[in-house]
Amino acid sequence: MNSIVELKNVSKSYGPVLSLKPINLKIGGNEIVGLIGDNGAGKSTLIKLITGLESPTLGEIFIKGKRIDLNQYSVKISQQLGIETVYQKLSLCEKQPLWRNFFAGRPITNAFGLINVKKQRKITAEIMKSTIGFRSEGINVDTQVSFLSGGERQGVAIGRAMYFESDLIILDEPTVALAISEVEKVLRFVNNIKNKGKSCIFIEHNIHHVHEISDRIIVLDRGELVLNCQKQSIEINDLIQLLKELHFRKKNKTNLHKGI
Amino acid sequence: MKKILNIDGVTVGIVFLALILVFMLTAPRVFLNFRIYMSFFATVPPPLIIALGITLVAVAGEMDLSFPSTVALSSYIFAYLFENFQLSWLAFVIAILAGATVGFVNGLVITMLGIPSLIATLALLFLWGGFVTIISGGIQLAIPTIYETPIHNFLVGRFEQFFPVQILWAILISIVIWLLLNRHKFGENLLFIGDNSEVAKMMGINVILEKIKLFTLSGILSSVGGVFLTLETTSYFSSQGMGYLLTVIAAVFIGGTSIFGGSGRVIGTVFAVFIVTVIEAGLVASGIQGFWTRFFIGLVFILAVSINTLLENPGKVPLVRFFRAKGFFQTL
Questions:
Q1: Domain spans of chain B?
Q2: Where are the alpha helices (DSSP H) in B196-256?
Q3: Of B203, B263, B313, the CB nearest to A105
Q4: B2-325 to CATH, choices 1.10.10, 2.130.10, 2.40.50, 1.10.3470
Q5: Which pTM does this prediction carry?
Q6: How many angstroms separate the CA of residue A88 from the nearest CA in chain B?
């Protein structure tokens, strides 16, 4: 399977602090990768490196097989290469209607910079029906985001990422602080990503959600990759056991199951 | 009902018409005569053109208090170049370039030094105001001969001897600003920035660049307002713009532009500038002493901003939350 992102011996230090130890990782086409780890495990660092928000201290990054010039790499370039990140709180603007939010930062304009409102509304309506699968009554393209539930907001952000032909969508804790019914919606949206042939990195605290939806599971602990395996090869109880061990691991390292 | 009231200009338009009706009853001799309206059309354009720029600034969640000095600077440059070099159109262009430069520098100060715009532009109000007084030597200029020039007829002449053409220019500029805010990429960027500048950044909007453009545009519009004012009054004096400071800002928020940023009402601003002007004339014509004007503008200001906040988000009004907790206003 062709990989979308490949990290070779990538590490990151902030001053004297090594926040990500040398890591080798591949994200393949059309797979959902669940990324688990405690606070400070290096999850956000890993994501920042992949999306170009920060550059690694050492190592190489390949996107779709091409080596990236890390001096030039940026969020804009990673977007152009098909990587979109959906941040839990930093994706949508509350007071703006959906048809604006959907095209935030990249509206459809003519030569004078005037926005083609009609076209944007039409595309937004289509995607709400097909890709996102919005069913709730009373939501249309003119609805302000502030009237949407937490799950619906994630849906809009995910739908937008899919519309812009992203090959890899990174979801940053999309189910935090959501009601159970809302979580189900989000998991359905993530399934849609898979069905449309795209890939997804799914950052989560809730192990059950990750296990339910991921093809592959990665666990980071204190800047180290401690688990990288297909979902089938690990039972959820073993996963929970592993995470508990990591949690109680003090300074002296115990034997861990590394990369199965 | 709430939907209709939320359309740009509807609420404030109703208030405007109601005010006119009231003044027709209290001061029929003045308000039933068309001349008062011609007088409004002559005096409203300068503050209106300035207020359009401030509306965009407020949409981005920023403030620009420096415009009275920009008005003075452009007025002075225009009057000086006309009096000493008989320049008219070129003087107009140079005055606007000066306004653009002032706005650009304001934008740099705000974005590069990171001073909140409310404070930065207050400082710049002093700075540019002092600058004008220094270069002008504190003098006033009267340019009565501008009456005979084509630029005067073209920009502030009287069509058929009675209709002030500057209102047409002001309306044209209002339409352009409406399009800019509601249909242009730049306006949309301002909406996103005012709504949540962190999200705007994440979505790839260059927040710093857009803000510099915004303050430059505000400077341009202020200087256009300044030149219109000088043409209409055929004079320059250094405190010329100061009278607009409070009324223009009041008008922007009376018009329905959000005090929190992220949404703006251009048509609302147009009506609100009229309201502020009409209150002044109407109270005096109704036999109420002139110093009541400020009191009434203050009253309308508070009422309008409260109503706009109520329409936008009732949950943001503590008094509503208090009554809701007691079981009232549940449907609001």
A1: 2-325
A2: 197-202, 207-233, 244-254
A3: B203
A4: 1.10.3470
A5: 0.86
A6: 11
